[in-house]
Design goal:
- By secondary structure, the chain is an alpha/beta fold.
- It has one domain: Rossmann fold, CATH 3.40.50.1820.
- The chain contains ten helices and eight strands.
- Strands 1-2-4-3-5-6-7-8 form an eight-stranded mixed β-sheet, sandwiched between helices.
- Strand 5, helix 5 and strand 6 form a beta-alpha-beta unit.
- Helix 3 crosses helix 5.
- The longest helix is centred in the middle third of the chain and has 15 residues.
């Protein structure tokens, strides 16, 4: 287990903030589990869960899967509610910096660090991909001198919009029940894409009744508008939170496409 904050974690909860039924207590500290595989590049995995849970089938399962196919992975257990923005994005940015700082120890290229997220974890991965150059917290040590920019992004049925096409629970857990218009705009990721946003792999299903496929379409359109390369797969069957999609054989081929894409990008 890798504790990502070594010299003081920003935005630490006070006891009065956490509440008795909170998933994350005041004692919870974000951590990563490493799955080394001797690859050139690595993938940091952010499980989904509406910013209130962290789904194992989108976290640990993928750490083991990446390792089994020869790609080094790190699964990040980031903060969720009652924590709120910017605690989560701080954890994601710190994870990228940590892996980059320790790249040589893991035998990976410091310029081949991808970030991958599912659902709300996809929103967090996307947030790190568009806001990597923003100052979300005060530096704590030499690791924070590293760049927080992922080299690639992988977004799986992601939450993207905080407006019309939002996922209510994710927005409330991240930004509160009454977010300002400025914060909704800032965290609607398709509105924050630039020419320097990392190349991205996206997949979703048209039949997702939890997070509308429009979220992925908005992000892809924004990437296209800024001439950022991307690959996108939209499937006509399957619900939300599929992970490896073992129950949907037609959708399960997304993993083959991802491996082919990562191989094309020289990650293996």
């Amino acid at each position: 287990m890798i504790k990502i904050w070594k010299n003081g974690m920003p935005y630490r909860l006070e006891a009065i903030d956490a509440g008795t039924n909170a998933l994350d207590s005041v004692d919870f500290e974000p951590y990563m589990q490493a799955y080394p595989a001797g690859s050139k590049g690595a993938v940091i995995v952010l499980p989904g869960g509406g910013y209130v849970n962290r789904a194992q089938h989108e976290g640990t399962t993928f750490g083991e899967w990446f390792q089994s196919i020869g790609i080094t992975a790190f699964v990040l257990q980031y903060r969720v509610a009652p924590n709120a923005h910017p605690a989560e994005i701080s954890d994601a940015m710190r994870a990228v910096k940590y892996v980059r700082h320790h790249a040589e120890e893991y035998g990976i290229d410091r310029d081949k660090i991808a970030i991958m997220g599912f659902s709300a974890g996809g929103h967090l991965a996307g947030s790190a991909s568009v806001h990597y150059d923003k100052k979300m917290y005060e530096p704590t040590d030499e690791i924070d001198n590293e760049s927080a920019k992922p080299n690639l992004s992988i977004l799986c049925y992601p939450v993207i919009d905080m407006g019309e096409y939002r996922h209510d629970g994710s927005r409330q857990n991240l930004l509160s029940s009454r977010p300002t218009e400025e914060m909704k705009e800032f965290m609607s990721l398709h509105k924050q894409v630039t020419d320097d946003t990392p190349e991205t792999f996206i997949w979703h299903t048209t039949t997702d009744e939890t997070v509308s496929v429009t979220n992925s379409l908005l992000y892809a359109q924004a990437l296209s508008n800024h001439n950022v390369d991307y690959e996108m797969h939209i499937y006509p069957v399957g619900g939300h939170g599929l992970g490896l999609a073992a129950t949907e054989p037609y959708v399960a081929k997304w993993t083959n496409d991802l491996v082919a894409w990562l191989t094309l990008k020289d990650w293996k």
